[in-house]
Design goal:
Length: 126
């Protein structure tokens, strides 16, 4: 079966809303910056950039899978990516932020990454 067709009116309405205010875009940038700075301060490796999709570099497929599973168990939904989706040795967890996240959501995610990252030997909490 074919996927449902999307109405061009929906796209136009979305563009209209975005052109009226930058509030959501500003909030998305704030959330991305808050998450990145929190993760950097805890010792996680991330490529430079300012994007709402933040890769946490782990370089090991099993580690990416295990950490993603453990984070899910803590209520943090992230996805582990590894070969063949990314190059060998470039395994990572992808975190996707949105304007709907509140600061406490981001802080909770950083804290969960810290606990689980320490448990898996990715970072040191000493």
């Amino acid at each position: 079966s074919c996927p449902p067709r999307r109405s061009p009116a929906l796209a136009l309405k979305a563009l209209e809303l975005l052109s009226e205010s930058t509030t959501l875009l500003d909030r998305l940038h704030e959330n991305s910056s808050r998450f990145r700075s929190g993760m950097e301060s805890r010792g996680f490796e991330m490529p430079a950039g300012e994007h709402p999709i933040v890769p946490i570099m782990l370089h090991d497929a099993k580690l990416a899978q295990d950490m993603a599973r453990d984070l899910f168990d803590e209520g943090i939904y992230v996805v582990g990516f590894f070969y063949p989706v990314v190059a060998k040795g470039q395994a990572r967890i992808r975190v996707q932020l949105s304007a709907a996240h509140e600061p406490e959501h981001i802080d909770r995610a950083v804290d969960a990454f810290t606990r689980i990252g320490a448990r898996h030997g990715v970072i040191s909490t000493a």
